[in-house]
Amino acid sequence: MDRREFLGSLAGVSALVPALALLPALEQEAFAQGVHARAQGLPALRSLSPEADATLSGIADILLPQTDTVGALQIGANRFIDLLLTESMLETDRNRFLEGLKAIDAQCVESHGAHFSAAPRGQQEALIRALDSHLTGREPTRAETAALAKQPVTAQHGYALVKQLVVFAYFTSEPVAKGLINAPIIPGRYDGCVSA
């Protein structure tokens, strides 16, 4: 994913975080970097219970594990998301996000007989692959979003929200923005047709 694709994907996150919808794309990135800085200094999580944090952290580690590059856990994706949940999301959206984590955990218990955080890594990955296969690859329309808001949160919908926020947290973190995303927002000099 390059910088332009990422900035384009902010539209879905803006629907969850009303403050972002009011900002231009570049200011959205600055907002996120401010949230990262504040999240690192907080002594404890405020919206995520220990169980919800374990589920979120496990999913984040599967989606963006540490390899030769920094992973989602190393940039503090769970702390970033907790701060967004606490300070920037509407109560209904925060509750739906937390319900989504519970639905994912319940799906794991149903499929594998164990809570997500206690399931072996292979079973966690199998569940995430199954949930990921249900994603459409496009942002839902306003009508689809409104219809989803009236229905109980499923594991599939909960996973879509989790993935969206984990990716947002990851790509707006300083180590990723400075170390992995190397595409300039404004490209270098253009020399058009030059006669020889």
Low-confidence stretches: 1-5, 183-187
What's the β-strand tally?
0
Q: Tally the helices: what do you get?
A: 10
> Could you state the order of secondary-structure elements as H and E?
HHHHHHHHHH
**Overall structural domain count:** 1
What is the percent of helical residues? 55-70%
Form type: globular
* Radius of gyration, CA atoms, in whole angstroms: 18 Å
- What's the story with the biggest beta sheet? none
Mean pLDDT: 84
Structural class: mainly alpha
Distance between the termini: 37 Å
Give the DSSP E fraction (strand runs of 2 or more residues).
Answer: under 5%
What does this structure look like?
Helix 1 (3-16) crosses helix 9 (155-172), helix 3 packs across helix 5 and helix 5 crosses helix 9. It contains ten helices and no strands. By secondary structure, the chain is mostly helical. 64% of the residues lie in helices and 0% in strands. The relative contact order is 0.17. It has one domain.
